[in-house]
Each structure stands twice: as C-alpha cells, then as structure tokens.
Amino acid sequence: MKIATSKCKSRTExxxxxxxxxxxxxxxxxxxxxxxCKHLIPKSALFWILSSVVINLSFxxxxxxxxxxxxxxxxxxTPSVSPAKAKSPAAKLQFQVSGRDLLVVDGSGSKKTFxxxxxxxxxxxxxxxxxxxxxxxxxxAVLGGSRAADMTVLPGSxxxxxxQLKTESGQKLENGKDFKVDSSSGxxxxxxxxxxxxVVADYKCWLTRLDTLVVDQAGNLAILEGVPLRSAPxxxxxxxxxxxxANILSRWCNQPLAxxxxxxxxxxxxxxxxxxxxxxxxxxxxxxxxxxxxxINLVFWGDSITAGFCADPLDKSFPSLVVARLKSQFPTASxxxxxxGFTGRRAKDVMKQLPEALATHPDLLVVEFVNDLSTPVRxxxxxxxxxxxxxxxxxxxxxxxxxxxxxxSMAKAQDWQSIADNPYIALIHELGATNDLAVADVSWxxxxxxxxxxxxxxxxxxxxxxxxxRGHEIYAEEILRCITH
Length: 485
Fold this sequence. Notes:
Blueprint: H1 10-22, H2 44-47, E1 55-58, E2 84-85, E3 94-98, E4 101-105, E5 111-115, E6 122-130, E7 132-133, E8 139-142, E9 164-167, E10 172-173, E11 179-182, E12 187-190, E13 198-205, E14 209-216, E15 220-224, E16 242-250, E17 262-264, H3 276-291, E18 295-302, H4 304-307, H5 318-329, E19 334-341, H6 354-358, E20 364-368, H7 377-393, E21 397-402, H8 423-435, E22 438-441, H9 442-447, H10 469-484
Parallel strand pairs: 18-19, 18-20, 20-21, 21-22
Antiparallel strand pairs: 1-3, 2-15, 3-4, 4-5, 6-13, 7-8, 8-12, 9-10, 9-13, 11-12, 14-15, 14-16, 16-17
Helix pairs in contact: 5-10, 7-8
C-alpha cells in the first residue's frame, strides 16, 4: 500500500539546501536513537511489488515516472560512501533508480550514480526447535528468527530456501522432501509423523535497511548506510556538518529499488498551534515546579506502547525518554514517575485500574491508547468522559495523546491516509478544547512523516502496531513540547 503525498511548495523545496548552507554547520546534528532492535522488517505484503522499475523523482512532484532510464554511461562503479560533487546544491534535485543504482541529478544536469548495497541476511544456526502437532496432524513449528520482539510472526522474513534441518542425533532432513517451509507464517512442517520431538535448524532471515543521502557544506553528496534490521529500519545518525536530503529503503529479498524506496526529506514539521495556548495555560503549574526544582509525580497510563513494547532497549520507550529529557533540562527537579501499560487493552478495559493510578496524586496523567483506534464511538465517549471526570475530581492535570498510525486493518481504516479521520483522534481534540485539557498530537506527526523521509508502514516493528525507536521518540517529542512549551 502506497502513501500518497501532496505536491510540495517549490520555494521550500528549492531552498532547503541553500538555507542549510547559510546556517552554522558547527551546531550538533540531531541524532536518532541507535538502531539496536534485533527483530525488524517492512510489511511483506507491500514489498513484493515493482521488482524492476526505473523512476524519476523530483523535489517538486508527487508521482514517480519511468521515463528517464539510467544509461550505461551514467553507471559508475562507485562505493556507496564515496562523495560526489554537487555543482549547485541549491538547485532542484532529481532521482532515478535502476536495479540497485541511484542516480542523482542536480539542476545543472550534473549526475552521480550511487550503488545501494544489498542488506546482509541474518544467519541463525543450531536453533533447537520443539515440534508440536499441527492442524494437519503433522509435526510443525514456528522458527524463532521469523518473530519480532513482541513474538509476532513477520510474514515473508524467512528465507525458505535456506532452511536446513537435522535431528538431535544428526540425521539430516531434506528440504522439500522430508519437510516443507511456509515463509508467510515462518513455519516448518514435516511431511510425515515422527518419533522425535525436536529438530536442529539452520536458516537465514531477510534484513532491511534505511540509508540516507546527505550533502555537506561544500555541496558534496554521499550515501550513509543504516544498520540492517529485520523490520522498521532506522536512518543512520547524521554527523555534524551534513544535511540529510533523502532516505533510501532496501527491502527484503535484496529486491531492486522501487519508486517509494526513495523518500526525500524536507524538514521535521510540528503540529499547528491550535493546542499550544491551551497547553501552556494548563501545564504552566507543572512547568513552574520543574523550573523551581520542586518534586513532581508523573503517571503514564496506556497500552503496550506505554509499556514500551518493541522499544530497544526499554529506556528508548517514550515514558523513559520523557523523564530522562526532563531531568536533563531541569537537573534540580525531583521527578518520580510510574508506568501503567496494559498490553492489548483499550481504555474501557482498564477503567477499574484508574483510581489506583490517581491515588498517588500525580501532577500529570498522560493517557495513550492506540488500541482505541478500533473502539466504537459510543464506548469512546463514555470512557473518556469518565477519565476526564475522574481527573477533575482528583484535581489531576490530564494530558491526552493522539495515537500513532497502526496498520489500517487495526484502525478499521481503508488505507493509511484515512486513519487521520479516525473518530478517536477527533474526540481527543474535542475533549481537549471543551475541557481545557493538554493534547499531545502524535497523530499529526505520523500523518506528516513524509517530511522526515519516512512512512508509517516502515515504522512498525511487528508490521501491525508497535513503533520502532523513532516512533517512541516522536511520542516523547510531542509530550515534551507540551510540557516545556
């Protein structure tokens, strides 16, 4: 599924490089969290398309075309990290891809081709696999390497041809004869009942990677390679003195680059100021306590996102990031916090636990429930009215957080774009406006991920609902933006 993008404003797009060069390149570049998650990959159903295509992407157009193929003369054997001189950094850039080659053309017609290296596959050796009886009455098992960090199977991540099995006694089993492999479910199935209950497996899993095209202060272009991961790859950290221009996605199975694989970067946008004045008013007492070094108590109340699922390591979860950055910004403040994350639950499912969360008289209750994207409107109205009333009675400041974008099927949406129109998101904004509540608008940031050279479908570690470290960082950024104004 491809996320449509709107046409850009040329004055913004054409000036991005020249404005950056005019800035002080000595300032530290923002660095993204380290790409440590060991269980990662983009959605297979979306990735097995456009296997051979030549595209032309402009900084000022929405669509991709295949009119300008890369000629043999333009294909140069250049390492992906070798710099290429861009004669006119402020000029319009175009991208063309052919196979795994990326051609960058500036406004003066100067061309440079980069070869985007294939991500390495992940070998898994000597895995002891317990066999169970499957639906067909045959011994079967799910290979561990095909699972994400939350144990969700990553469809298509297993390289079926690489699977080798043997019994614990050393007897080799033949792929296709003694057993079958289903990459979509990550399973192996023996073709006949056996007396043994375990096998030893060797196999490989596909990896994906996000690289970044950068320009330095002299106008030199280069490709920075990201870290290969199983899903939801993170862009590489950008060194000081370089400006990111586009992210390039390398998919599973070492596929050729496709149209949506080249994602240009404009700027990190922030939500409009519709909630800023109210947030400032509501959270001023908390901000003053932080500045004066007084003790504060925060409670984060939500689902598995609040619990930190798929944040790797756990201190990259958004509650941990919020507290760590508040302590850094306000070193004299005494900050206590509690995380109440209920896996797989909606707000209405855990209302009985709300009094316990409020019993500590927190200065701020932060409520996040991405699972409520699928909750009926009638239940939403009743549940959140009760949350607002409970906080009012306990004199607790309440912050509602709009959710990130899950797979459309989980949000009961037809496509990624329509998630922005989900009634849950609208309800949060309405409650904020009518009840003087703080609202952290994470949904708006996910709706505009394209400005950061990202897409919602490649931000989910389990391909369904759990965001990667960058997703958790966006939650933290928006919550902190409300607190620190």
